[in-house]
Amino acid sequence: MNCKDKLSPFAYHVMFEKGTEPPFTSPLYSEKRKGVYKCRCCGAPLFSSETKFDSGTGWPSFYAPIDESAVEEELDTSHGMIRTEVHCAKCKGHLGHVFEDGPPPTGLRYCINGVCLEFEPA
Asked: Is residue 4 part of a domain?
């Protein structure tokens, strides 16, 4: 899928060159309405407002994807760290990382770059 024409240069950089947006810059960080967070590139539903929580990290955070098959994970050893990268299962765009310090019921924190998401209110 070619998303270069659909995305801003910065969104393309984050999603397909594995960049990161600065913390606390995404309007989606403080989004409180009910709805679905979709992939900005391909439109696939990724996360629900039902699993969103305030992690205090500066990025939209969720304790679970909307469906287990919506995102894929892979080992990320860049920047001298060992992390688990999360990308869209459909278009393979980089979304962020998942950590094991989230709330119940999963204990996971999907820390997602807001520039990679589009919010669709319920």
From this structure: no
Please check whether residue 23 is in contact with residue 56, taking contact to mean a CB–CB distance below 8 angstroms.
no
pLDDT digits 0-9 by tens, 51-87: 999 999 999 999 999 999 999 999 998 888 899 999 9
Measured CA to CA, the distance from residue 33 to residue 93 in angstroms comes to 25
- The structural domain count of the chain equals 1
CATH no. for residue 80? 2.170.150.20
The answer to whether the beta carbons of residues 37 and 118 sit under 8 Å apart is yes
pLDDT confidence band for 107 (50 / 70 / 90): very high
Point out the residues that are catalytic.
111
Q: What is the pTM of this model?
A: 0.94
